[in-house]
Amino acid sequence: MTLPRQMLAANTEWADETVAREPHFFQALSRGQNPLVLWIGCSDSRVPAETITLCQPGDLFVHRNIANLFPPDDDNCSSVLEYAVRVLKVGHVIVCGHYGCGGVRAALLPPSPELPHVNRRIAPLRALAHAHHDELDAQPSDDARLNRLAELNVLEQVQRLRDTDIVRESQPAPLVHGWIFSLDDGRIKVVASGYPGDAQRDPGN
Ligand SMILES: [Zn+2]
């Protein structure tokens, strides 16, 4: 069986199992969504938001792109934030990066001629790497450099989100959190807590 066919068969199985376990599940789902969290993550297939946090359909409003970026002039990202904050009134925005991120790695390598869109997209990451080149150059290995830049990238996106009018003007403003996922052990580390009292304990801030 090809993978798409397998996926459709799995979907039927999932829908049947779900309704057997929770007879009103889809009735509730079709009434509307009320997610409490906007998740901004990387498109990487190994970092599926719901799976790694045991969330269910309806729990997370999700935006994913290469290297979990939030460029302020990007209507795609901004429309997701706007809708999540102003209409869905999420209480939390979580930026979740991950170690070993290919998008972050690409920003440390020369631009690839066959990937013009990716090159343009990750240009701010190259600028971020340049701004922190002293700290990055001091890392003991390429992997350490990549992983530190992945953390700095999460911190940068958290700051950009906190600086948006959408977040600042919202009453109450959603809390913006920065997380990073490890492919090695499946654990998430908090690199920027959204809880006000935790701010001074953020590493790298
Ligand atoms: Zn990634």
UniProtKB/TrEMBL annotation:
A molecular function (GO) held by this record is: carbonate dehydratase activity
Any keyword Iron?
A: no
Q: Which domain of life is it from?
A: Bacteria
Q: What class of enzyme is it?
A: lyase
One Pfam family here:
Pro_CA
Q: Which InterPro entries match?
A: Carbonic_anhydrase, Carbonic_anhydrase_CS, Carbonic_anhydrase_sf
Reactions catalysed, as given in the entry: hydrogencarbonate + H(+) = CO2 + H2O
Q: Where is the signal peptide?
A: none
Is the keyword Membrane assigned to this protein?
Answer: no
SUPFAM superfamilies assigned: beta-carbonic anhydrase, cab (SSF53056)
* Cofactor(s) in the UniProt record: Zn(2+)
Query: Mind listing the UniProt keywords for this protein, alphabetically?
Result: Lyase, Metal-binding, Zinc
Q: What is the E.C. number?
A: 4.2.1.1
Function of this protein? Answer: Reversible hydration of carbon dioxide.
PANTHER family with a match to the protein in the record: CARBONIC ANHYDRASE
* Protein family (similarity comment): Belongs to the beta-class carbonic anhydrase family.
The protein depicted here goes by the name Carbonic anhydrase
